[in-house]
Write a structure and sequence with these properties.
289 residues, Rossmann fold, Helicase, Ruva Protein, domain 3, 2 domains, 11 helices
Length: 289
């Protein structure tokens, strides 16, 4: 695994200027690597897509369990080196090392690569800090094609993904992901686990995607607007944040909040998924203004 802190265990090459520019740090702790592979839980029926394969020690461990492995690596030199090494693995026929940008990769096409029709599509990777938002957005957009994602992220981002209502970490990212997935933080990874060490801690999360959202809404775009506006000015009360986000006049917002049974003096981080869904639907029914 490569990325923000990224990589695989052992044998990590010395970081070059190019690799520093790519934000690559290689995981050097075999215990963490083992826990990640176990959290993925691949079987011979499953396809595993690894984001940021790096030198490939984690790639090899995943290949030993998966029915098929597609490893993505943006660095052409690392990709070529790993592809050459993988030719000599016993699992070589089941492994593809592809140079690709994880921010734009078509994850929607992955189900066609499964070794068995009933197999799962599992994503694993250590996301570069600079690209984590773009990759998370792509994965969430492709959620219908995915069963599970085990991701190493900057600890702050991981905690936001898994946060529950009431805390300062809970925000739009929490709402959007938890509407479609059960997100669990698995472990914190210290800088010393990487070569070179990053400046901050990392954490691993597991997201199990659902076939249907936990809450349904009448208008997906309206739901997105409400959530973004509510957290866009999170120091303000909910009513003021929504008004500041351009979602209507005080009168219209008061009607919507009343219809949803939500006190406009609350703050966004106190609302549950169900309350955000009720508010978005109520706002859609309220008269324009």
């Amino acid at each position: 695994m490569t990325g923000g802190p990224a990589g695989s265990r052992g044998g990590a090459p010395r970081a070059t200027g190019r690799r520093r520019a790519l934000g690559q740090h290689f995981l050097a702790d075999p215990g963490v690597a083992t826990r990640i592979v176990e959290a993925v839980g691949a079987t011979p029926a499953d396809l595993v897509c690894e984001i940021g394969a790096g030198p490939g020690a984690l790639t090899r461990a995943l290949a030993a369990r998966a029915g098929r492995l597609l490893a993505l690596e943006i660095d052409p030199a690392l990709r070529d080196r790993l592809a050459a090494a993988a030719q000599h693995w016993p699992e070589a026929a089941r492994v593809e090392i592809r140079q690709a940008d994880a921010c734009t990769f078509a994850y929607e096409a992955l189900p066609a690569l499964r070794p068995a029709p009933a197999g799962r599509v599992l994503v694993v990777g250590n996301l570069p800090y600079s690209a984590s938002k773009a990759i998370l957005d792509r994965l969430l957009a492709a959620r219908a094609a995915l069963d599970l994602a085990v991701l190493m992220l900057q600890r702050e981002v991981a905690e936001r993904l898994a946060a529950t209502p009431g805390g300062r970490e809970y925000g739009a990212l929490s709402v959007f992901w938890q509407r479609w997935a059960e997100v669990t933080r698995l472990l914190v990874v210290p800088p010393a686990a990487f070569r070179p060490p990053p400046a901050v801690e990392s954490a691993v999360v597991r997201a199990t995607f659902a076939a249907a959202p936990r809450v349904t809404v009448a208008d997906e775009a309206a739901f997105t607007r409400v959530v973004r506006a509510a957290f866009g000015q999170r120091r303000k009360t909910l009513g003021n944040a929504l008004r500041g986000g351009g979602l209507g006049s005080p009168e219209r917002l008061a009607t919507a909040l009343g219809g949803a049974g939500i006190d406009g003096r609350r703050r966004a981080e106190t609302l549950s998924l169900e309350e955000f869904a009720r508010l978005a639907d109520a706002l859609g029914r309220a008269a324009p203004g």
